[in-house]
Write a structure and sequence with these properties.
CATH superfamily of the largest domain: Medium-chain alcohol dehydrogenases, catalytic domain
Number of strands: 15
Number of helices: 10
CATH topology of the largest domain: Quinone Oxidoreductase, Chain A, domain 1
Bound molecules: NADP nicotinamide-adenine-dinucleotide phosphate
Amino acid sequence: MRALLTTGTPPTWTVTEIAPPAVAPDQVLVEVTTAGLNRADLLMREGAYVPSSADWNVGPDRVGFEMAGRVRAVGDRVTGIAPGQYVMAQTGGACAELVAVDHRLLLPVPDPQDLVAAAGLPSALLTEYDALTGAARFRPGDRVLITGGAGGVGHIGVQLARALGARTVIATTRSQDKAGLLRELGATRVIDTASEDIATALGPDAFDVCLDHLGGPVLAGLLGAAAPRARIVQIGRLAGTHAHLDLETLAARRIQLIGTTFRGRDTDELHALNARVREALPGLLRTHDVRPVVDSVLDLSEAERAGQLLDRPGLTGKVILRIVA
Ligand SMILES: NC(=O)c1ccc[n+]([C@@H]2O[C@H](COP(=O)([O-])OP(=O)(O)OC[C@H]3O[C@@H](n4cnc5c(N)ncnc54)[C@H](OP(=O)(O)O)[C@@H]3O)[C@@H](O)[C@H]2O)c1
């Protein structure tokens, strides 16, 4: 089968012929139609990220964290899933014609006619649902702030916050061009951080929950806008891995700063999160139309160019690779 691998120096993505995966009793073999690319794919190519969660069951040279496709075969211990069914999942080495995935990590696709969109959903959905409802202990009526709101992950967070009953959803971007889309997705206010400082624009007591995808000085600036007992979930560090925090404000407002990552998560934790998302999914999709915004779609053979698109400033939403027609 064809699979995308990181090879050479400097490292590049190369389509390579490799052996198809064997299917263990708890696994399902999926013919991958489309795979979503993520920032972590770029970091892995640079050697700056090593996945260690139980849903990465292939070598570190494989590319891709999420995919959508059709079940080809099921392992002996799998029930309730049959060949021909359409599924999506966060799983290691997703940019390949076939993947073997533990059945407890599979999610039903929102629309079998749209496997392009489906491929861009699993990682963002799992990340943001876990951050919001797990780490941040979100409750309907909370006011939510999402930094990097137009990103591949953040734009799902904006929609989830709206769908789960946030009183206000504030999203940040450095580009005024993305403000319209963010409002369409459910943001009640958009802050253009190219011209506005978050704490100055919002004042104190503006959010109860923050999903922070940026870190660095952006994280430091969030404290001034936090409500007493606010929960800030630190998800990504695109603006920097270090922050100079005003600990007086942190303490005085009893703000909770919570880090999160998939790295190191074991099977039980991943299965439990997927089960929670599977249960919530019908409502989120049918009632609230939570959907990924697709920035661009390219063929597997154009993976290097897809990586460049993923790294460009104007990126809005997801970059998707077509694997098998
Ligand atoms: N912890 C986890 O479990 C987990 C899971 C998935 C992803 N992540 C991480 O979460 C972060 C977001 O992922 P993503 O896929 O949404 O990334 P993305 O699509 O590449 O970017 C998110 C947005 O952040 C803004 N941004 C980028 N660099 C910035 C900078 N230096 N300063 C301020 N804003 C900047 C951009 O928005 P504007 O151009 O609109 O400003 C961009 O669209 C990444 O670091 C990723 O690795 C973590």
